[in-house]
Amino acid sequence: MTDLLRVLLVEDNADDAALVVRSLERAGHSVSYERVTSADAFVAHLEGREWDVVISDHIVPGFGSEAALRIVRSGHYDLPFIVVSGQIGEEAAVDALKAGADDYVMKDRLARLPPAVARAIAHRALERRQRQHDAEVQRAQAIEALGAIAAGIAHDVNNVLTVIIGNLQLAQMLDAGPRAAEHLEQAYLAAERGRDLVRRTLALGQGGTELRELVRPSIVAEEVASLLRPGLGAGIQLDVEVSADTPDVIADPTQLFQMLMNLASNAAQAIETDHGRVRITLAREPLSESHRPVASLPDGEYLLLQVTDTGKGMDRATAARVFEPFFTTKPRGQGSGLGLAAVHHMVQRHGGAITVRSEPGQGTTFSIYLPVMPGPSPDTHGDEARPADAATVAPRSGAAPGTMPKHVLYVEDDVLVALATSKYLRTLGYVVTEVHSAREGIEAVLNRPDGFDVVLTDERLPGMSGSQMAAALARTRPGLPVIIASGVKPVDGALALPNVLEWLSKPYADLTLRRALERALAGAGVRSPDC
């Protein structure tokens, strides 16, 4: 079996070029080569196709190995470079190696050329992998720092959003007329976008709560397209193409939506003319030893999700940096440089990989590979779906007809959050007792051991956290169910407590809170401490 070797040869003598090629063929290579004799031709061929190695004569009239090496090592090309010469002194050879040449071979000793080429290619591949590893480490460190910053502010931001969303939901229950209802709906959607922005920022680090459930990607892709199409120009087309064998995947549906939304909106923005096309394609992609477009991925079945545009494209240097945090090609004030970094991080958290292919003036294609796991067809995706209208929001859950209303002990230190949530709970028919610290919550239960049916608490409270309070209540009142709400992921051990039934991600949808309370009151899950 012969290996194809793509050689760009700087040589003014056709006979010498033939000798170089023959020496490589004798070593078992099938050689594809081009011979150039000028700087312009050299650059044109470098840009025109992919090469495995550059082999350059030391002296070529008007050009030569020194000039060729400067071009290759200018930072745009990562290629092995070998000097071949019939007359090169020791000093010139050392200078060539110092300047970045991988090796030099005398023309009267061409038997050394094939092993020199093999060593140079292997060495460059090793350096490339090391650079990729270093870049991943730096990216991970930057993302970890961003995640820490995001986690620090998420609690306060989510409390603000909880107040806004809670009051909007209460306002939507009123008969304010169609125009007011329209404005309330727009405000609610904006608040939901704010909530999703906080979650996306938290996803940069490991501070956010992640779901894993069976997701049908075609549904997510169509949702993204339906949201983006109204904002596109009349001449810009956005299509979704789904292969018949497109698999479902185990994923976080919110993160999958964010990946697609970010890539598709970027693609639309890259089209600077009045006409263009954005295409989202989904297909099954089996990876094996004979077909492995991403070296880091193991064999197996993958969902291939591609977003392609006919926009301005990018050069190699830009494409190599697009996943770096804070790197952006957009004008100041129009891009944070975090979108693609977040996408890259989310893809990796799902065990996948993302690549980019682009050329200036030729558009761009982003390809996401997500591993496929077998499972049943997805039906619903949890309680975060928003009810269609206020009539579905407000049924009274606090008491069945002819029974006493259920009593909620609500522990929240933010007064505005407590006010909005308490109002909503009362519209559902619950009796609500508000306290503003964990110690006050424990005292309330000790004073009235049988006075409460469920505890709803924030996690971050002054002096003692919600989960610490739940641990204390598990000893003093073990049958009392506790629901914890927070803007960050569950703290270690919280969900292992026998009385903690749910961890709600703030700001939560009204339906999510209502159903969590209904499950808690139905006795679904209070465990014996011995379990």
Describe this structure in words.
The structure is a single chain. The protein contains 14 helices and 17 strands. By secondary structure, the protein is of the alpha/beta class. It folds into four domains: 3-126, Rossmann fold (3-Layer(aba) Sandwich); 133-204; 217-371, Histidine kinase-like ATPase, C-terminal domain (Heat Shock Protein 90, 2-Layer Sandwich); 390-521, Rossmann fold (3-Layer(aba) Sandwich). The strands form four sheets. It has a five-stranded parallel sheet with strand order 2-1-3-4-5, with helices on both faces. It has a five-stranded mixed sheet with strand order 7-9-10-12-11. The N and C termini lie far apart (63 Å). Mean pLDDT is 82; it is low at 332-336 and 375-396.
Describe the SSE topology.
Elements: E1 3-10, H1 14-26, E2 29-36, H2 39-48, E3 53-57, H3 65-72, E4 81-85, H4 90-98, E5 103-106, H5 113-172, H6 178-204, E6 213-215, H7 217-228, E7 236-242, E8 249-251, H8 253-270, E9 276-287, E10 300-309, H9 316-319, H10 339-349, E11 353-358, E12 364-371, E13 407-411, H11 415-427, E14 431-435, H12 438-447, E15 454-458, H13 466-476, E16 482-486, E17 500-505, H14 510-521
Parallel strand pairs: 1-2, 1-3, 3-4, 4-5, 7-9, 13-14, 13-15, 15-16, 16-17
Antiparallel strand pairs: 6-8, 9-10, 10-12, 11-12
Helix pairs in contact: 5-6, 5-11, 6-10, 7-8, 8-10, 12-13
